Amino acid sequence: VTATDAAGNESTESSALSITVDTTNTNIPATLDLDTASDLGTSSIDDSTADNTPTISGSGTNGDTVTLYDGSTALGTAVVAGGVWSITSSELSDATYTLTAKSTDAAGNESNASVGLDITIETVAPTVTSFTSSTIDGSYKIGDEITITANMSDDVIVGSSFIIFLNTGDVVAL
What we know:
Elements lengths: L29 E5 L13 E2 L5 E5 L5 E6 L2 E7 L4 E5 L6 E10 L12 E5 L6 E6 L14 E5 L10 E3 L5 E3 L1
Parallel strand pairs: 2-8
Antiparallel strand pairs: 1-3, 3-6, 4-5, 4-7, 7-8, 9-10, 11-12
């Protein structure tokens, strides 16, 4: 390439410029997972948490920028290093989400969305909405067996324990 000014002076030829056109999509981020430290459910693999800014991780192509999505809403970004990435999400309300990720390479090519990761965020503990008992009139005697049913505001885990504080000051653990 040369340049010529209005007076007709021509520059020397520039050196060659090599251009690479990259239109190939980058790899889709793989193995999205709710990090163990964020997975505050009943097990470390249930993808249920009380953390409303959960950390999601996965694998990808080094140097790519990964964006985490809830639908079309971006929740955060990270650059893949050592084949892995980790994103702490922006704040989410209590709900069930299907999160996906997309990678963007240095040329700006964006991958398709990853397989969705279903997570549940629940920051409010269930409460007792009502009690019923086998003796409705409250006429209990020492040695009576009483069946008490507690109705909860949300599903609870079988095997969970309950503590009932009685008007007498006694405490009953179920």
